[in-house]
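Hi R.,

Here's the chain you asked about this morning:
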Amino acid sequence: MAFKIDLGEKFGCIALVNVWREKSLTEPVDLGGDLWAVFEPPLQLADYWEKWIGSISVDHLKRANLFLFAKAASKAPAILDEENEALVKKVSYFFYGLLLFGIPQYERGFHFNGANESGKPEVRQFGELDEYRQTVGNERLSEVGLDTLKSAAASAQTIRKIADREMSERLNRGFASLLRAVQELEGGERLHQYVRALEAVVHPGIAKSTKQFVHRCLTFVGVDGSRMEKAREALKDAYEIRSQVEHQNGWEAALDGYPAGDREHVAKLRLRQAEGLALSVYRKITISSGLSAHFQSDSSLDGFWQFDDGHRRSQWSDPFDICSVV
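And the predicted structure, written out as tokens:
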């Protein structure tokens, strides 16, 4: 299917350079809701890139092989206004949906927006994409495929509702913590933000936060038998590391029950487990309409935790196996 920015349309775009993607993806894909995935620089933009963003950035963009677009007809294509801002947000939510499946492998990223005012699209704003990091030891999204792009576009619809506070306020704060986590460089702070993202969903009570955090997170992990205690231990450690970092202490204090030589290994393992679990939880909430209904408000979120354990787990199909992370 052909892709173009028609006369009178505005657009927002995120471009990834040398992203790992399925080789079969060559033709532009209309993902619905004004979202597109394009796999080479759109030709009608090429003449204008150097004018607006400089030759060095143009050289990088010529090697970009995934362009996420949001585009729509404009009432005022000559003006940089809230329409541009809305499209920037829309394509950002699309990208955030992609992040929930794992950080893609790419060289550099850019974001830009503009309009087709007089017959050819022009770039009005341009910048480099923030860096998003996969925790060392966890697998990146190996290849961006069509199914992943479709899921990310579907997820973006719920992410928009979360960002616009049309769903639980706690979920809004939790998703903000998740985004901070994938950008955080220091391991203790990174784990801290992942656990805060999970904490927003499970909403443990005051004075029983550790116990309830562990118990409620077991809804998401899908383990039983001998592995149940391993899962409990992993969740308890992660929450205690979060508490130490929250109170400006070193993460080491949370693991003083382990031999000194093992603590760094355990801390890194807990980070990998927390990342995998947090991404899994938000991925499911944003993809599944049945689950997202439980998180429409703080009261409906609390109602979800009033169900008995068996009912909650039956609702949460295909859980994340936290014990498989090594």
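The beta strands are 9-17, 29-32, 35-38, 64-73, 108-116, 121-128.

Let me know if you need anything else.
M.
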